[in-house]
Amino acid sequence: MPQQTPHQNAPFPSAGGEAHGYLALPESGRGPGVIVIQEWWGLVDHIKDVADRLAAEGFGALAPDLYGGRTTHDGAEAAGMMAGVPEEEGARLLAGAGDYLLSSAAVAGSTVGAIGFCMGGGFVLALAAQQGERVSAAVPFYGVGQGVPESFAGVRAAVQGHYGEQDAFYPAEKARGQAEQIRRESGAEVTYYFYVAPHAFHNDENPAGNYRPAEAKLAWSRAVDFLKDNIR
């Protein structure tokens, strides 16, 4: 593996080809691995910043690029781009990111965590269902889109979700039902938190202005502690 620097674009083998992502490493050069999964906008600066923030907390964070370099700030275009990444294809690519992290000397441990937002929150659950015990911590933030799997039977990760009570894209009651479905089908430890906030409340670059600083700060602190406690 080539020499790694604290922040870099990282190619990795995936689904029989080569994928790319943004890799952020802690100052120590080594830490627990976390896959950071983008919103429907693509691998934008906000998602890279999330990876950097995780690196500052001691993690080795890889944000895969699910769109092959494309990004947008237009909702209709983002919806079309998201539709072009079906659950199975996205989960396979993300599995390659997990393989990359677990084979890296910069990553400690035998499991990875996954955190994702909007579309990425859905793919967090798809990845956990697909990868079983290899993913020990799954953190979906307001997960929506075709990345959400129909069955959670394969989930072996502890799951911590963050959802808005005012989310028009994914109503809170639906999220509560999802949490119960995960528990029922997988037997996993599941905790979903709900905030007086709309969809995408964690994104401080959200084009719709949905960012809620206090709620975002609380959710982030919970997520970081959870990842530290559950990646082995």
From TrEMBL:
Show the InterPro entries listed in the entry.
AB_hydrolase_fold, Dienelactn_hydro, Dienelactone_hydrolase-like
Q: Tell me the keywords, alphabetical order.
A: Hydrolase
Residue ranges annotated for the Dienelactone hydrolase domain, each copy included:
21-229
Q: Does the keyword RNA-binding apply?
A: no
Top-level taxon in the UniProt lineage: Bacteria
Report any Pfam family annotated for this entry: DLH
Gene Ontology molecular function terms on file: hydrolase activity
Q: What is this protein called?
A: Dienelactone hydrolase family protein
**What is the source species?**
Arthrobacter deserti
